[in-house]
Amino acid sequence: MTPAPPRSMPGQPTTCNVRPVSRDDASAIATIYNHFVLNTAVTFEEEAVTGAVITDRIEQIDASGLPWLVAERAGQIVGYAYASPWKPRVGYRFSAEVTVYCAPGNSGMGIGSALYAALLPLLRVRGIRTAVGGIGLPNEASVRLHEKFGFVKVAEFSNIGIKFGHWMNVGYWQLELH
To answer: How far is CA 106 from CA 44, 51, 79, 126, in A?
Structure first.
C-alpha cells in the first residue's frame, strides 16, 4: 500500500485505504469511538469502552455475516464503518443498521464517504434490502453524509435518549439497496 499524502489543509479530501476489520484493530477503534463517547452526544453510550469490548463487537458483527470495515491513511486507522442486524426477529433479516465514525480531526476528508462507498455494495451482495442510519440530532455532517448516498429521513423520535443530562432526538434515515 502506498501511503496517502498528508493533508495540507483542514477539510481537503485525502485518500485512504478501506479494508475489512481485523481483531488487531480493536484498540485503535476503541480510541476513535471513546472520543465520541466521552466528548459528544453522537452516541448515547456514556462510559469508555476497551479494546476487548470492541473485539467482542467485531466478533458479533462477523457472526451475523455483516461487514465491518476500517479506513487507513499513512498506516493509521482514521475511521470505521459496519452494519449490524436492524432487529433480532427473523423477518428483519434483510435490513441492517449502518454506522460510521471518523477519527477526530478527520471529518470532511472523504473518509466516511470512502467507507460507505465500500460498505453499501457489500450489503447488496449479502442480500440486504434496506440500510438504516440512526443519527443523534443535531448532527449536520452525518445527515449530509447519509443523504449524499441517497438515504432519506423517515422518522425522528423526540427526547428519546439522554446524554450529558440533556434529552436528545434521534432521526432515522433509510436507503433501499435493491
So the answer is: 21, 21, 8, 29
Could you give phi then psi for residue 120, rounded to 5 degrees?
A: -60, -45
Kindly report whether the global pTM for this prediction surpasses the value 0.85: yes
**Which cell is 97 given?**
443498521
pLDDT tens for 7-20 read 333 444 568 999 99
C-alpha cell at 69: 470495515
Distance of CA 137 to the CA centre of its chain: 15
The single residue listed with the C-alpha cell 452526544 is 41
Per-residue pLDDT of 98-111, as tens digits, reads: 999 999 999 889 99
Whichever domain contains 26, its CATH number is 3.40.630.30
Residue with grid cell 483542514, as numbered in its chain: 10
Contact 69, 119 (CB under 8 A): yes
Residue 37's domain comprises 17-176
